[in-house]
Amino acid sequence: MKIKIIIPTERIQNPIIAESMVKTGVLLNIMVANIDSTYGELIADVEDGHFNRIKEALEERGAFVSTLDQPIHRDEEECVECGACISVCPMKVYTFDEKWNLFMDDKKCIRCGMCIKMCPHQALKLGD
Amino acid sequence: MVEKSVQEINNKIKDGSVNVVTAEEMVGIVEELGVEGATREVDVVTTGTFGAMCSSGLMFNLGHSEPPIKIQKVWLNDVEAYSGLAAVDAYLGAAQISDTRGIEYGGAHVIEDLLRGKEINVHATSYGTDCYPRKVLDTTLTLEDLNEAILLNPRNAYQKYAAATNSSKRILHTYMGELLPKFGNVTYSGAGVLSPLSNDPDYDTIGLGTRIFMGGAQGYVIGNGTQHSPTNGFGTLMLKGDLKEMSSDYVRAASFTGYGSTLYMGIGIPIPVLNEKIAKATAVTDTDIITEILDYGAGSRDKPVIRKVNYSELRSGTVDIYEKKTPTSSMSSFKNARKIANELKEWVKHGKFFISTPAERLSKTDVVKPMKQTHAIPLVKDVMSDFFVTIEGKHTVREAAKKIWENSFNHLAVVSDSGELLGIVTAWDVSKAVAENIFDSVDSIMTKKVLTCTPNEPVDLAARRLDTNGVSAMPVIDSERHVVGIITSDNISKLLARRY
């Protein structure tokens, strides 16, 4: 499952992610990481059965953890199927079929939100 | 030689014997039957395109109020329209943005809302005259309430478009969409094989008075578009059509993040196959249409050409940029372009649409000139401080503090032995180090990711870079990264003070 980890300013100096992984032995596959000296936000993949353990370990160390179970929603009325979203998606969620219909594979989506900003018709949103 | 007249083709449309194909289908027909055979066989080739056409707008007439008003300024849902015309005429540009909502809602959105039958708030002001005494007007109306609502688009349906990429280190928000840093993607526009003007590149049949498919209704070409540039294959069209007859399937508002609002227009143009030359032109393929990929990283008018590319490569999903496979995005919809070409084909086939002869041909020799600028724009080297203080990275924080204090200068450029810029240290960095009891070398406390500019850049670009990154100064460097000066927000304020 995909999860979002937020590291607040006061904990940004601590190796929270590494400590949590070492302590629990649960592996996080980090897909997007935006970390600087003031704030951190990561999107990672973790096996469903291990979620509770890693969540507990991360939260003990001051991180905030939430699950990303709502995929990006495409409003088919607004969408004109231009394909602007295709090149900005790091996970190749969007493709054209042979008839130039836009196809979306939400299982690959890591909710990074790049496509939302790209869409000229505001047809993509997080959640429903 | 096969020759046909528009009259003959229209007679065939009338009696139902006309043979119409789309520009995509024509490629295979010419391949199979040859140019002569295809000219004999096919009467009309339909084209289509569906994409962002910012230079579009609505000319409308509101009808007279009681008491009457000579409108000086007018807003539709808080988007200002131009009303320096007779009393209640105005022109709403698609790219004008809302005074209250900004770029998320613009003229294009008002046009789409009108088309969808929604009510629009109108606010108008005036100075009052004897014949038009009213000074303020507020009302709510729909498309039906307008006397005329004519889409009058100064520049639509570019023959082809330059593609876009970005060499800089940050995401650029442009009218070509989000351009990812370091050549992360390429965006393009245009329907390639279906593009109207690319199927008639000598403008043999498309001219002033050509009847077309415009936004789902019949419209007209009323001349070449603005910035018409036929000599290098970037022709454009000026179009008009009645919004009241159009469909919201083909007239769609959009907003590009960080750029603004625009109107997606669906345009289709029928090309009568009058002779072999025209037949051959309509067999154009994606591979034949060549454009350039431009680098938007510089923010300047003259964008560097990264490479030439054809539409077949662009539409394949990736193009090679410096030997790296780079993903592409289309900003226009090929699916809708194809739908338009097919719909126009059905109209012609079923006698609902007749071909026209242009009253005048489009220019084949125009050249687009850049703007004549009579006020020289200041460059970074004109306003930067030549005086700057450098320090080497191995020096201590204490030495940095001393230099700042002795020179009364807030920014120290940290340089290597050979004088190359490595980082920057500010009075703030030094204070922070002192507060935290760090007295190591300067390179441990400096900012390494330094924003820089070059001496010959316009000041406006440097000012925008300072502003968007929230910093107060940037070292000015030459091509070898040697520091030649520093530009601060103070330098820019002084420039403005001189200007006014």
Characterization of this structure:
The complex is a heterodimer of chains A (128) and B (500). Chain A is built from three helices and eight strands. Chain A has two domains: 2-67, 2-Layer Sandwich (Alpha-Beta Plaits), CATH 3.30.70; 72-126, Alpha-Beta Plaits (2-Layer Sandwich). In chain A, α1 (16-24) packs across α2. Chain A is of the alpha+beta class and 128 residues long. Chain A has helices spanning 16-24, 51-60, 114-118, and strands at 2-7, 29-35, 40-45, 64-67, 72-74, 94-96, 102-104, 124-126. Helix content of chain A is 19%, strand content 27%. In chain A, the strands form three sheets. In chain A, strands 2-3-1-4 form a four-stranded antiparallel sheet, with helices on one face. Chain A is elongated, with a radius of gyration of 17 Å. The model of chain A has no long low-confidence stretch (mean pLDDT 89). The longest helix of chain A has 10 residues, at 51-60. By secondary structure, chain B is of the alpha+beta class. Chain B has three domains: 6-53 and 152-361, no CATH class; 63-146, no CATH class; 380-499, CBS-domain (Roll). Chain B is 22% helix and 31% strand. In chain B, the strands form ten sheets. In chain B, strands 3, 4, 7, 12, 18, 19, 20, 21 and 22 form a nine-stranded antiparallel sheet that branches. A four-stranded antiparallel sheet of chain B has the order 6-5-10-11. In chain B, β32 (473-477) and β33 form a beta hairpin. In chain B, α8 (397-407) crosses α9 (427-435). The mean pLDDT of chain B is 94. The A-B interface holds A 80-88, 96, 99-102, 114, 117-118, 120-122 and B 50-52, 104, 173, 177-178, 180, 185-187, 252, 254-257, 262, 264, 317, 326-336, 338.
Mean pLDDT of chain A: 89
The structural class of chain A is alpha+beta
Q: What characterizes the major β-sheet of chain A?
A: 4 strands, antiparallel
Residues in β-strands, percent of chain B: 25-35%
> What's the overall average pLDDT of chain B, rounded?
94
Report helical residue fraction of chain B.
10-25%
Q: How many individual domains of chain B?
A: 3
